[in-house]
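Example record for the data management plan.
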Amino acid sequence: MNIGIDIKALNAGKAGIAAYIRNTLDKLQEIDTENRYFLFEKKTSSYRVFNPRWQKVLVPSRLPGTIWLMVVLPLLLGRYSIDVFWGPEQLVPCVLPSGSAAMLSTVLDLALKRCPRTMQNTNYLINMLFLKRSIRRSRTILTISHSIKDDLCRFFPHDASLGKVVVTYPGKPQWDLGSDTAAGRGNHLLFAGSLEPRKNLLNLLKAIFLLKKEKKLIVPLYIVGPGGWKNNAVRTYVETSGLKQQITVAGFLSEEELIRQYCRCKAFVYPSIYEGFGLPILESLATNTPVLTSKGTSMEEIAGECCVLFDPSDPRDIAEKIAGVYAPDFDPQARLKHRGEVLARFSWDTTARQTLAELTDAFMRNKGGERSHANCC
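Corresponding structural encoding:
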C-alpha cells in the first residue's frame, strides 16, 4: 500500500497540530515496515525520515497552502501511485479528481461552527469553502476527541454519519523532567497557548482583576505561546486594568523552557471556550501540575476529576476557582491522585496504530471491501 501524507504544517509549525503530525509520523515509522509512505510538502521541513520505505516529496510552490493542496497535490497522487491519502490538517484534496486514492482526514476542531468569530479571516474562508467538501470526500474521518466527533455528527449529519467517524486521541508528552522539579513551585499561574479569542484570556484577566479588587489577592500570570490574532482587547485590558505588573507575556518557548515553566508554576490555567483536544492539559498532568480549565469542553473529557473546572463565560466563577488554589487547605496531590490513570489512556504508539488501521481500512473499502469495525456516529 502506498500512503501519501500532507506534511506542509511541519515547515514552520509551532502549534499543537505540528506536534500531533510529528509524533504520529515518528511512531508510524517505527511500527510499519511494510507500506510505502510519501510525505508531500511545499517547502523543505526539518522532519527526519529514518524508515527506508519512507520518502519526503518536495513540491515547491508559491501558492497558498490550501490552494496547493487542492490544485497541485491531486496531480501527484497518480504519479506516485498513492492508494490512500491522509490529510492530518483538517482538509484533503476535494476540488480536482485525485485518481483512485482513498481519502482519510483528521478534523481537529469545528470552530467554523462553534465559534467562527474567533477565527482568522483567511482560516474562516478556507473552512467555509472546503471543509464540508473535504468531509464528504473522506472515506474515513479521524477526530481527536469525542467532543469533536459529536460536533461533526451534529453539524454535518448527512456527510459525517455514514459510519466513518473515528476518535483517535493524540498521545501524552514523553518528557524527561530532570532537575526541573527540584526548584519547587512558585506563586504564579501559567497559561500556554496562542493569544487569540478562543483561548478566552480576557475573562481570565477579569477574574484576576476581581481577585485583586475584592479579595486583595495578587495572582501573577505567566503567558507563553505564539502571538496569535484578534487580541487587541486583551492587550488593552492589561494596560488599563492595573494588572500590568502581574502579567508576563513570554512568547513562544522551547520545549525545555516550557517544561521548566510547567514545573515551577503554582497551577496551570486554561480558560479556552473551545478546543479540539487541549494538549496543554496532558502537558500539565505529565509535569504533576494542578489544572484549572473549562467545563463542558474536550478538556473535561480528557482530564476528568484531575482538574478544577469553571464556567469559562463567568469571570467570577473563574476567580472563585483560582482563589481555591491559593487557599491554605488546597491539596494539589489530592486533585492529581488519578493523573496516572488519565495519562495511561493517551499514547502516541496507540495513536499511530489506530491511524494505520484506519488507513488500511479506508484502502480496503475503496477496493470494494466492507468496513472491518463499527465506530460510527
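Summary line stored alongside the record: The chain has a mean pLDDT of 93.
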